[in-house]
Structures are given as C-alpha cells and as structure tokens.
Amino acid sequence: MSDGTGKKKILIVDDEEGIRSQICWALSDRYEVFQAADAPAALEIVRAEKPDLATIDIALSSVGEDTHGIDLLVNALEAHPEMKVIMVTGNEEKETALMAIDAGAHDYFQKPVDLDELKIIIRRALYVRQLEAENRDLQAKLAATRVFHEIIGSSPKMLDVFKKIETIANSEYTVLITGESGTGKELVAKAIHTQSQRCNRPFITINCGAIPEALLESELFGHEKGAFTDAIVQKKGKFENADTGTVFLDEIGELSLMLQVKLLRFLQEQSIERVGGDQPIELDVRILAATNKNLADEVKNKKFREDLFYRLSVINIDLPRLYDRGDDVVLLANHLLDRFAAENNRVGCSFDPKAIARMRLHDWPGNVRELENRIKRAVILSANRRIKATDMGFDPDSQSEIKTLAQLREEVESDHINQALLRHNWNVSRAAHDLGVSRTTLYDLLDKYGIKRH
Length: 454
Hints:
alpha/beta
C-alpha cells in the first residue's frame, strides 16, 4: 500500500542500526520507509502500515537470543500475504536464504549492502507485486463474471440488462429488444422465455426480414386449405404452434404495414384468423420483438404504425455495443476461443498480448457477431496455437493503436516469460528462478496471459 503522497511503503528490519540508517537514507527520497530492530516491532508495523515490501535480516537477533529471520518472514506474510519480502544474508548464509525463498521470500541480497543493487531488486519486487495485484483484480473480475442464460458479461451495462430480464421475465407484457446487429438480441429473448413461467412451453423465433412478404402472413398465422393456389392442405402458423409459449419476432421493423395491422389485432384481442379463414382462433402467446432500427423514426416516416410501436414497447431493453462493454470483449473472446478450439481439435489455443490489446481498441461495428467470426477464422487459419492480431484480420501496420504503458508492460513481460520457459524446456521452477519470481507467481502470470505449453 502507499501513503497519501502515492509513495510505496518499505519496512527495514535489522538489528544493526548502521545498516538500517544506511538503507533508509538511500530509499527515503522515493519511498516511505519504516524501521524495526526486532521481530515484535516489525510485526507491529506490518499489521498497522501494511507495507508493500520489507527487507529482513536473516540472522535477526533480539535481546541476545537469535531469532531466525525466517520465523519473522513466515509470521509477517501470514499477517500481510501481499507484501514482498527480501532477505538480507551474509556470504555463509546462502543455503538459509534459499530456505527463505521456499518459505515465501521474493528474493535475497548479501551483505555488505550494495545500495544500487538493492534499489534494482526493490524496484523489480514492487513491479512484480503490482502485476500480482492486477492479476488478482482480473481473477476477481472473472469470478464475478456472469454467464446468464448463455449471455456472458460482467460490465455494468450488461449487469443492468440481466437485472431487467430477471425483473420482467414473469410478467406477461410484450418486450421490445433494441440494439445494433450482433449485440445478442435473440439470446436476451431466449433468456426472458427461459426465466419465465412459460419456460417449458414452445419458444418460436420468426425472422421478419428473412421470409418473403407473400409467404410471411401464412407463416405467422397459417392458412386454410384452398386459400391460395398452393394451399393443398390446412396449415397452422407459428402463432398457433407457439400456443401457451412465446413468439420472438426478430427484425420487427421489416414487417409490412398490412402485417403490422394483423399483429396489432392479435395483441389487442389475443386471437388470429388463418389466411382464407373467417373463424377467430384464441391463443395464449407472449410476444417478444427485436429490431436494430429506430422505430420512433420509422413511425415519423410512416413506415411503422404508431399504435403497434406503443403496444410492442411496453417494456424496452436496449443492448449496448460491444465497444461500450469494457473488458467484456476479453471475457467473450476467451470463451469463444475455447469453444472454437475444441470444435476444431486445436485445444490449447491462447491469445497473443497484442491480439488482446487490439481487441480492446477495436470499435467492433459488427459487435459480438464480428468478434465470433474473427476468432473462428483465426482458429482455423492460424499457423500455431498462439493467436496473433494478424490472425484475427487486424492490420499490422494500422496506426490506430496507441499502446498504454500497461499494454507495453504486458507484452514485454509475456515475451520474457515465454523465453524463460523455452530456455528451460518448460521447467517452471528454473524459469521462475531466472525471472526472479516464485513458482506460484509464475503460475498466476501464465494464467493471466493465457500461456500454455503446446
């Protein structure tokens, strides 16, 4: 943790006052430094101040009796697990220092203290601590991710959508679902139906823009035998087949004005007449509709009936663009990658950090559908299981990407981890030693960057 000025907190634990003063003098311009001469004082500071890092003399003594620094290390990490600890050793104590690493210390350095070397070790340890904190935040976010009736999302806008679905599902009101193409309107309609008391009854989807107008009336409402030339038998329409269930009218804005009248009549009277028939058929059907058009504008332009618009939009759910959903794009991308990799016998695929960075920056005009198509293509066409930005169709020479420091740091760190693992033939312990981190930390970083052995 840091103080009010933003400085990181460092605790120096050594029973030699001269060493404590020397280290404090070297670090105090950049960090908020605390001192302790013995284990009880050190633990008190750890609990009260929650320092980011501590240096502990491995041969710490107190009141004439040796108190092994490893004992303090264990107790300090128990009190504050996120703290990084660097052990200070003599030349003859290297074996004990390695024991301290096994007990949870981040690193060690030897006396006499080389202040320049110590500063580098401290900067590296604090950098790793920051990365671990970011990884914990990501893991917490992943744990909070909601998979709501096949809809994946943890952004505030999507959580609002989920809450609205839960609230309205058991009502009998019509619902108008709006949003750009590819935002998941049909999934929302299915979620409403699945959450409702009609969940065990039919759910029938009709794409109003995909069926020719001449056939759509018969598809919706059915026809009697002889109603037209090819009507050689009586046929029930989608509404009858969905009785006691739900009808989802996708692309409702494509419905002709004539069929809008018939739909309005059904909403008012809960009955239909088949094409060529004259007997009303009463039905119990809930209507959900979706459109990527602005129906209010369509009403103004006389392309959509105002009375039907108000009947349909008793409740409205407006879906956000993928670009407006923050890190949902990464959550969705990893979910889709696992799915398509399994389907194509390419288990173990992961994203290159540059690919993740480009996904975060892309505006996604096709929304989730575009993301799905890009990942599916990448899984099939990529030369290896490490999916790169170019595999997803992003221009490698595009100047639209302005990388943040965090993105650059992630790229460099991921590359270094890969190199260390390859150098040691995926021996995690040796790679962790080279990288100056614990095996546990390295495993966390492998998860963070999706690095897998291929």
